[in-house]
Design goal:
174 residues; two-stranded antiparallel sheet; alpha+beta
Length: 174
C-alpha cells in the first residue's frame, strides 16, 4: 500500500481537507456530504439521507428509472436486490468510517410488493459485527409501504485505499 495520503474537500466546507486516515474523526453529517458527492452510485440515483454510525443505521433514497422495469412495469428483482444490498452494506461501511467493507456471502431478499420506478427509501442496519462475519438487515419502502426486506451475511474486510478525489468525480486530481 502506498503511504501517500489522499485528500479531498467536503462539500460546503472548502477550508479544510479530509484524509482517508482521518474519516473516523469527522461527523456523521460530514460523512454524508462527502459520500453524496460520490459518482459511483449514479446507477440507482442513490442519496444518503441519514446515518447513525454509533448504532449502525442508515437511510438512503433511490430514484429508479423506468428502464430498470420488466414488461409488467415493476422494477426487476435483481435491481431491487442490489438496492437493498447497497443500503445494508453502507450501514456497515459508514459505521466503520470507510475502513472496512462487507462483501456479501449470502443475501435473502423478500419481495413483499412490486417496486415501481420513482422514489424508494432504503434502510440498512448492522445487526451484529464480529471480527470476520457481519450480519445486516434492510428494507425498502415506497409510498410509506415496505416493499422489500432483506437479511445478509457478509465477511468483514479492509477497505482498499480510497482516492476520494476520483470518487467524487474531481477531474483536477494531482
Amino acid at each position: 500500500f502506498s503511504s501517500r495520503r489522499r485528500h479531498t474537500r467536503l462539500q460546503g466546507d472548502w477550508s479544510s481537507d479530509v484524509c482517508s486516515s482521518d474519516l473516523e474523526k469527522i461527523s456523521d453529517a460530514e460523512l454524508i456530504k462527502l459520500f453524496n458527492k460520490n459518482k459511483l452510485f449514479d446507477l440507482f440515483n442513490m442519496t444518503v439521507l441519514e446515518v447513525d454510525t454509533t448504532a449502525g443505521n442508515i437511510k438512503v433514497e433511490f430514484d429508479i428509472d423506468k428502464k430498470y422495469c420488466n414488461p409488467a412495469g415493476d422494477v426487476q428483482g435483481g435491481i431491487v436486490s442490489g438496492m437493498v444490498d447497497d443500503a445494508t452494506a453502507l450501514a456497515f461501511i459508514f459505521q466503520n468510517h470507510f475502513k472496512k467493507r462487507p462483501p456479501t456471502i449470502e443475501l435473502k431478499t423478500n419481495f413483499l410488493y412490486p417496486t415501481k420506478p420513482g422514489k424508494v427509501i432504503g434502510y440498512g442496519r448492522v445487526v451484529k459485527s464480529g471480527k470476520n462475519i457481519v450480519f445486516l438487515e434492510g428494507r425498502l419502502e415506497q409510498n410509506n409501504r415496505t416493499v422489500v426486506t432483506s437479511t445478509s451475511t457478509c465477511v468483514s474486510v479492509d477497505m482498499p485505499q480510497v482516492n476520494f478525489k476520483k470518487m467524487i468525480g474531481d477531474n483536477n486530481e494531482k
